[in-house]
Amino acid sequence: MTDRYLALVNTPVGQLIAKNVGIPNPPVLERWRDGAPLVDGTVLVGAAEGGRLEKYVGDLLATHDVAVDGAAEDGKRYKGIVFDASGIRTPDQLVRLQEFFTPVLRSLARCGRVVVLGTPVENAESDGEAIAQRALEGITRSLGKEVGRGATVQLVYVAPGAEDAAASTLEFLLSPKSAYVSGQVIRIGTLAKNAPEPVDVRRPLEGKVALVTGASRGLGEAMARTLHRDGATIVGLDVAPLASDLKKLIDELGGTSITLDITAADAPKRIARHLDEAHGGVDIVVHNAGITRDKRLRNMKSENWQAVIDVNVGAPQRITAELLDQQLIRPNGRVIGVSSIAGIAGNNGQTNYAASKAGVIGFVQELAARVADTGITVNAIAPGFIETAMVKTIPMAIREAGRRMNSMSQGGRPIDVAETVAWYANPGSSSVSGNVVRVCGQSLLGA
């Protein structure tokens, strides 16, 4: 759905009115386009004394021919600013971030990227280090609400020994592909450090097979198209009433399709059979299919409660279990769940939906630990207000609140969710597991 306010406020007259009246002034976000560089500008890289990640950042940017400065130059604009805070081991050393960022934040370009790197608290060697590293979350989440102009701020915790496993995550966060992701905390462990890297950085999923449920429209369609763009063969799944839409999409992308109700008793086995017979297995499983049946709890019907739980989290659990039991998810495979900010912050009239989406997070956290030794990663995305056809059914006042109540002052697009899925799916993300990343423009709701 078109955001007419966004279009109006970004005209010369709209900019003048917004400036003088003080109304929200959402920027036009820069999103990835074919052939674009990883970073369209210079990246400033700094580090606290004793940091272990600065070198890896420099080496990565060099492979992409990105210009890097080790010290700020007066009057120069920076498209990215990266600070390695992994060397900060006491609370008093946190001032190093203030000393680094205060002089350079005004030099951050429109739609710029800020990334802070740290050490997971569980790897801290003292209580002082644990305090300091956990404090980075407060700093980055707050800074994300300050930078404005379409810029984003993220914190990436990199476990010791996983330094060279951070490449795909940094590529995603520094590029326009992360346009609607901000204020997030990402953890990179050492689950599958030696997993194969993609051969072609522009088609990292070449030779992979990706199952996307709810693929015919909206977020699912964007996911299917984006994974196909990156080289994957798509297996699209949807219900019978959407079979014609699904067929049209799959005919265009050249994959295969499955038409069924994922809550049916035989659905897991039917899906497994198709993946085995048509593709010999699957590399990426995206549990996107979902429904809502909104009512306040005092008015909730049992059948509507159960339907939402079963579609949104029960079926994904059963399907994944079947694929794992039959060993159809290949080594270095991906399982990706779709949660929601409703599952984190709650929502009036959505106790059933919020329960299901919080349940997705529990599913991801438990399964990620259980399959860690197989090289399979399990992660979730939690979309916020995304401009899909469903937006038209939302009352105007609530719709406008959803759009403006985030650091970007606008709704996201399906491509923003799809790009995050593609980052999880990337073979280089083999040490990213157990994460829940919100695609919400840093919504003011929830954590």
UniProtKB/TrEMBL annotation:
<dbReference type="InterPro" id="IPR002347">
    <property type="entry name" value="SDR_fam"/>
</dbReference>
<dbReference type="InterPro" id="IPR036291">
    <property type="entry name" value="NAD(P)-bd_dom_sf"/>
</dbReference>
<protein>
    <submittedName>
        <fullName>3-oxoacyl-ACP reductase</fullName>
        <ecNumber>1.1.1.100</ecNumber>
    </submittedName>
</protein>
<feature type="domain" description="Ketoreductase">
    <location>
        <begin position="208"/>
        <end position="384"/>
    </location>
</feature>
<dbReference type="InterPro" id="IPR057326">
    <property type="entry name" value="KR_dom"/>
</dbReference>
<dbReference type="Pfam" id="PF00106">
    <property type="entry name" value="adh_short"/>
</dbReference>
<keyword id="KW-0560">Oxidoreductase</keyword>
<dbReference type="GO" id="GO:0004316">
    <property type="term" value="F:3-oxoacyl-[acyl-carrier-protein] reductase (NADPH) activity"/>
</dbReference>
<comment type="similarity">
    <text>Belongs to the short-chain dehydrogenases/reductases (SDR) family.</text>
</comment>
<dbReference type="InterPro" id="IPR020904">
    <property type="entry name" value="Sc_DH/Rdtase_CS"/>
</dbReference>
